[in-house]
Amino acid sequence: MYIGLAAGMLIPVITLLIFIHAAYDHLSIGEFIQFMIQRNKLSAMISLVILPDLLVFFIFVWLNYLYSARGVLAATIIFALLVVITKFLI
C-alpha cells in the first residue's frame, strides 16, 4: 500500500513540474502557483495533474496489485480534499 501511496503522491507532482516546464518555463514554481491563485485556477490545475493517477491505478489493478491500487486511491482522495480546500478557501 505504501508503494501505491508514494506513486499516487509523486506522479501528480512530476506531472505538475513537466507542465510548468513545458508551458510556463519563464516562471518559477512559486511564481506559477501565485499566477494560478491570481487567476483563480489553482483548484482546476490540481484536478488536472491528478489525472495520471488514474492510469497508475488501473495498471496496479490489471497487475493484481490491489493494495498498491488502494494506496493510489488514498493519494487521490488526499488530492481531492486539497482541491476542495483550495476551491473554497483560496
Explain what this protein looks like in three dimensions.
With 90 residues, the chain is mainly α. Helix content is 86%, strand content 0%. The chain is built from 4 helices and no strands. α1 packs across α3, α1 packs across α4 and α3 runs antiparallel to α4. It is elongated and about 40 Å long.
Write the layout of secondary structure elements.
Blueprint: H1 2-23, H2 29-38, H3 42-62, H4 66-89
Helix pairs in contact: 1-3, 1-4, 3-4
Summary of the model, kept short:
The protein is mostly helical. It has helices at residues 2-23, 29-38, 42-62, 66-89.
Q: List unreliable stretches of 5+ residues.
A: none
What is the radius of gyration computed over CA atoms, rounded to a whole number of angstroms? 14 Å
- Quote the distance from N terminus to C terminus: 32 Å
Major sheet details: none
Notable characteristics:
90 residues; mainly alpha; 86% helix; elongated
